[in-house]
Amino acid sequence: MTEISTNPVHIQPGLNNLLSRYAECMMWLARYMERIENLARLLEVTESFVRGADGRPGWDTILQINSDEDCFFARHQTATEQEVLAFYVTEQENPNSIKAMAHAVRENARAVRPLISTEMWMQLNVFTRWVLDLHPSDIRANSLSGLCNRLKQECQSHYGITEGTLYRDQAWLFYLLGKHLERSDQITRLIDIRYHTLLPAHEEVGSGIDITQWASILRSAAAYHAFRRLQPVTTTPVNVVGFLLKNEGFPRSLSTSLRMLDSTLSTIAGHGSLRRLCAPIQECVAELRVTLADQTVEDIIIRGLHEYMQWIQTQISRVQQETALAFWPAPGILGGTPSVQVQQ
Amino acid sequence: MNDAPLHAPVQAAGLFTAYDVPDFFCELLNRKDPPPPGLLQIKERLAQFTLAELRHRTAAAEAQLYRLGITFTVYSDSKAIDRILPFDMIPRVLTATEWDHIDRGVQQRVQAINLFLHDIYHDRAILRDGIIPADLVLKNPNYCEAMVGLKVPGGVYVHINGTDLIRDQDGRFLILEDNARTPSGVSYVIENRHMMLRLMPDLAAGVPLRSVEEYGLKLHQSLCEVSPEGVLDPQVVLLSPGIYNSAYFEHVFLAREMGVPLVEGKDLVVENHRVFMRTVAGLRPVHAIYRRLNDEFLDPLAFNPESMLGVPGLVDAYRRGNVTIANALGTGVADDKAVYAYMPRIIRYYLNEDPILESVQTHICAEPEGLAYTLANIEKLVIKPVGESGGYGLLIGPHATQDELEEFRRRLKDNPANYISQPVVNLSVSPTLCPAGVEARHVDLRPFALTGRSTWVLPGGLSRVALRKGSLVVNSSQGGGSKDTWVLAS
C-alpha cells in the first residue's frame, strides 16, 4: 500500500530558539482549526444522514459526541435543531462553539503573527472575522450545508496555505503536533459515541445493522468513499471501526495520526538539547501505537471499545500535558506569570 | 512670490479641475517656487486620473488593508473593533533638496538630544550654565533617577526618534514636536509604499523614488551596534505589551522586518542579573531589547509594582550593562513640550551650530512673560498642555468659542507650568480625496531617525493628513489619515 502521509518531516537545523509561547500558540492554532473542521463535518452529516427513532435529524447525538449535554442543558430546554445549531455555531458562551473556537484561533494567530506567513495570517484574519460576525439567523438563511461547506473549505485553505508557505522550523513541528493530536482525539470521540448509541449490546457485533447510520460515521470522517473502495461489499461495525482506527492509508485514521505524531516528535527530538524533553511525550505516543497495533478490532470490541476510546482520550490529554510541561513549563517551575493563551 | 502658473492646461483637464487651491502652501499645486521636473511629472500623471478611478483604487486599498490586518484596535463597550488608518492615494512628494535639508536637520536634532540626555544624567553642565532651568529637567515627571550616572553604549539614549515637522505659509519646515520615547507609525510608511506600488503602479512607474525598504535592516543593525560590549552575535528582541495593544500590528511588522522574536514581558526572565527568553529549548540570552512599552511598565521591581507587562529585574540587569534597552529610560525629558522651547538653545550649546530646522516660536507659561503674552493673545495662539500627546487637551485659539477661551484662561492661571503656547501655523496642505472630491487638507510629516554608531534617517516619513476640512489635528486618534511620502532621488 502506498503510504501517502508518511513522508518524513524535514526541518531546518539551527533554528532552536522558538519562544515557548509561540510553540504553545502554534499547537493550539492547529488544534482549534482541526476541531472547527470536525465540528462542521459533524453538523453537516447530522443534518443529512443521522436520524433518530422518529426519523428526524438526531441533534441530541452530537451533544453526546462532544460530551456537551451538561453545558447545553444548562442554558437550553430541549435539543431542537435551532437551539443545537445556535449552541454549536454562534453561541460564544459555549467554548466548543465554532464562534468561540474561531475566537481562540484568532487570538493564537495574532500571537504568532510575527512567525506565520502573511498569506496564512490574511486567510485566518478574514476567516475568523467572518465567523465572529455570524448571526444565528445566518445559519438557516444560507442553509446549514452551505455554511458547513464554507467552514470546511476555509479550514482546508488554511492547511493548504500553511503547507505551502510556513517556514519549516520548530513552529511547523508544534503546529503538526497539535494537528495530529487533535485528529487522534476527534476520531476516537466520533467512534466512541456513535458506536455506543448504534450498537449498545456486545452480542450484536457482526449482526445485520442499519447501513445508513454506519455510513454516516464514515461520512463525518470524510472516509466513506475510501472505505467503499476497500470494502465494497461488507459494511459491518467491525469493518467500519477497523478502518477508522487502523487503516494506514486513510489520513484521518487513528493509526495515521499516531504515526504522524511519532514522526513529528522524532524530528523535534533530533534537535540535540530537546531529546531529553521529548522522551516522556514519545513514550506516551509509543504506548498508544503499541496497544493499537497489538490488538485486532474484534479484540478491541470484545474487551470494550468504549473503555479503549476513553483510555486513548486520556492518553491524548497526557500527551498535551507532557508537551506543556516540557516546552512551556508553568509558572513556579521557571518563575514568572502564567500564559494567557486560550486553551480548551 | 507666487509667480509659477498654478494651473497648467493639462491639469485643468483632470483630477484637479475643481481643486480649490487654498491660500496655504500646497505640497503639490501651490509651491512658491516653480515645481521641479519630477514633481511636475507626478502632478501631470495624477491629473489624468478620474475621480471615479481614484475612488475605485482607494476602495481596493482599504479592502487590502483590512484583509492584511493592517489595523489598530479600538476598544469600546468591551468590544474590540479593528480599524484601518484611512489611506489617501495622492502621495505627498518631497524634492531631493527638501529632503537633504530635513535629513541634516533631523540628524542634528537627534545628536543634540542624545548629548543633552547624557549631560542631564551625568555632569548637568547645561543646568549649571543656566541654559535651561534645572527644575524643568530634574523635576520633570519623565526624569528617571535610575539613569543617573549610568553609562549607555555609544552614549546613545534615543535610538529611534520621530520628529514631527510642519510647513508654514512659505513652505518652511518647522519642528513641531520631538518623539524620543517610543515613536510609532513607521510601519505605515513602509506599508503605504507597498500599497502604492501595488495599486498605483502607473503613477510611480519610472519616478526615481528613495526606497523605504531598508528600515528593518538598519534598525536591527543599530541595535546590534549598541548591544553590551563583548557580545559577538547579539540576540535582539522586540518587547510588546501584547496582542491587545492598539499598535500590535506595528510591533509584529518591526519584529518581522528585523527577523527577531516579538516577546511579551512574560516571555522574558532575569536570572543572575541577565535577561533570558523562554524558548522550547530552555532559557536563551537576550542582549538588546527594542521596547514598545513605556518606562513605568518595564519592571515592576523598579517602577509600577502593578505592571503585569514588564519583566522583574530588568532595570537592574540594564544598570549592570548586561542588556541594552532602546530607547533608554528617561528619554521623555527630551521630548517634553516645555523642554522643546529650549531646543534651539540646547543645539547651540552642545554643537555650537544654528539649528538647521527651526522650531515653532514657543511661549513658556511657566515664565511670567510667557504667561502674560499667552493670556493677552490667547485668541491667536495654540495652547498645549505639556504632558499630553496625541493631540489631546489642546486649544486652538482662532477656532475656539468665547467660553472655551475663558475656560483656558482660567486653567492657565491655575497651573501655568502645565502649558506652552505657540502661534497658529498655517500648516501646508496636500490634495486629498474627500467625500466631495479632491480637496486641500492639512498635513504634517514625521521622519524616523535611527541611531547606533551613527544616525540614519529613513527617506520620507509618515505624512499624516487631517481629514476634516480645516482641521489642524492630524493624529489618528482624532480623525487623521495618512499618505505615502515620496522623496525624489534627484
Automatic annotation (TrEMBL), chain A:
Residues 18-324 form the DUF403 domain. It comes from the Bacteria. This is Alpha-E domain-containing protein. It comes from Acetobacter farinalis.
Automatic annotation (TrEMBL), chain B:
SUPFAM superfamilies: Glutathione synthetase ATP-binding domain-like. Gene3D superfamilies: 3.30.1490.270, 3.40.50.11290. It comes from the Bacteria. Residues 91-466 form the Circularly permuted ATP-grasp type domain. It holds the Pfam family CP_ATPgrasp_2. This is Circularly permuted type 2 ATP-grasp protein.
